[in-house]
Every structure is written in structure tokens, then in C-alpha cells.
Amino acid sequence: MAPAALRRRLNWQLAEVLSVTTETPTARRLRLAVHDWAGHAAGQHVDVRLTAPDGYTAQRSYSIASPPQAPHLDLVVERLENGEVSEYLTEELRSGDLLELRGPIGGYFVWPATAAGPVQLIAGGSGVVPFLSMLGHHRATRSEIQVRLLYSARTEADLIGTGELAGPGISTTLTLTRAVPPGWEGLRRRVDVTMLAEHTLAPERSPLVFVCGPTAFVETVAAGMLSLGHDQSRIKTERFGATGGP
Amino acid sequence: MSTPPNPPDRRLDINAAAGPLAELFAVDLTLATVQCDGCSNTTDLARYDVYADGPGLVIRCQGCDHVVLRYSTAGGRLRLDMTGTRLLVIPGG
């Protein structure tokens, strides 16, 4: 990212909701139009702020699901138990509504298609969202870089972005932790070191490794990748707390 | 045993601090390197633990748990305490 881009002050701006669609039983995809959007890198997020009539505000961070090339901004929001912001965004929000957001934020957990070497993505639950942007960016730039995704979700119905996980040079392994449908050909257990050894790029390939999901998931995976011999400097993590687990 | 002060699931990465800190900093701190004043270790701010669910934002060293940064916007005032940071380096100058 150019130094000039680093020195842009972030302000809250209004986005118009173009559509709200059902991504999974608990997640909605918000398609937004943002006037004068500064553009984003694959993997970045935005903060969303809600203001109640009495002035009370609450804000949360959501990863951007759409690639930089898309004409709109997609967020995927998972409804959390007692989540005051996620409940509003998934249940109340309608197309035509305005939403306050600031971004794009964070130049660390990003994948510029120009980065050298293969890429290993490892997602737990809605931790796949920033990877949807990276995979879309990979397809849009016709990148020849090898990308592997290991994605863990509770059930098949909980899988986010199922139509966006493939492409030339992209290989995806799915694992379900709670229930598998008849004829399921993917894996069927929690991610462990054995699974990482068998279904991710070997450390000898020096892949750039991105791990995103609930805190416990990310820390388990990051420790597993370190134990397999991956260099810590090649592992980037994005922990999002206790909620929304795989 | 009482509840530990920092239950493991509360730990987040620097991205969670980037939006709030952008209220004060015009540069992207997610790319910064920080030397911890507690143990003198120097590493990417992305390798520190962020706690964002309290009244303020707290960033701790993964090695010695020392607080390197506290930030709060309570009461309409921005407060920044970086006594735990010996040196902050940001690329792209």
C-alpha cells in the first residue's frame, strides 16, 4: 500500500443498503453503495455504527466480503445471541436504509495479489468472510498464485459464500464439526494438527498463511501451523473473540 | 479460584483496535512495530493481544502481558496512555 494511502483520515460516512439477502440461517449479506468509497484491499474491514434516537451508539467491525473490483461493498453479518448490533443488521435492516460506516480499515490482514508465493487460508465459521474478498480478488486479477482454503463450519447450512470458494488455482477443503448431510465428501471433525498437516500447504512451500475465526480456533490453528514448521512471520491472524464459532 | 482477569476468548488482533485508534492517528497502526517497555521485546503490533470489550481499549504484550497501550473515548474525551510502549515505529515515513 502506498504511504499516501496510509495517511488518509478515517471519517464516518453513509452507505445505502442496496439489498439484504440470506446467506445462512443466521447470516445475512448486506450489499452497500458507498458514495466516494476510497477503495479497499482484500481482507480489510469496516466499522459500522448504530445510533439510537436517544443518542446511544454502538459500533462493531465487519470484514468486507466483496473484492476490491466489485462496484459495491458486501458485508456478511452473523446474528449473535444478544448481539445488539448484529440483531438489528440481520433482522431490521431493509434495502434503501442508510448505514453509518468508516473504512476501509487495517493494512495488516490483507492479501495484495502482487504478493509472492502461494497462499494458505484457514477459516473458522464467519472467519471465511475476508477470504471471500481475497478469493474474488484472485479471480478478478486472474492470479496464477496457488491458493488453498481450509474452511471449518458447524453444518453444511452454516457455510458462507458457497458459490465463491472455487476458481482457477484455488482449492478448497471443507470440514463440518456438528452434523454432515448424507453423501458428504468433505471432512467431518474440528481442525487439528493432523488435518493441518494433510490439508494445507507444506511449510517447505513457504506459503503466506491467513487464519481468521473465533479466538480459540485461531490460536489453535496458529500454534498448529507453527508446530508444523511454518515461520511465524508468514502467519497472519485475525481473532474475533468468543462468538460465532465453527 | 476466581475468574481469570483475561479469559482467553477475549483476545483479539490489532485489526480490532484499528478503527478506534484512527480517531487519533492519521497513520495505520496495524503496520506498526512496538518495543514493549516491560520486557524490551520488539515485534509487530499485530503480534500483541488486543482487548476491546472493556470501557477502553487495552493492548498487551504476548510475552510478558505488560500493557503497552490504553485508549478510551469515555466522557467525550480521547485518552491515550502509551507509557508501556518504549518505541513505536511505523513504516512508510
Automatic annotation (TrEMBL), chain B:
<protein>
    <recommendedName>
        <fullName>MJ0042 family finger-like domain-containing protein</fullName>
    </recommendedName>
</protein>
<dbReference type="Pfam" id="PF20120">
    <property type="entry name" value="DUF6510"/>
</dbReference>
<dbReference type="InterPro" id="IPR045423">
    <property type="entry name" value="DUF6510"/>
</dbReference>
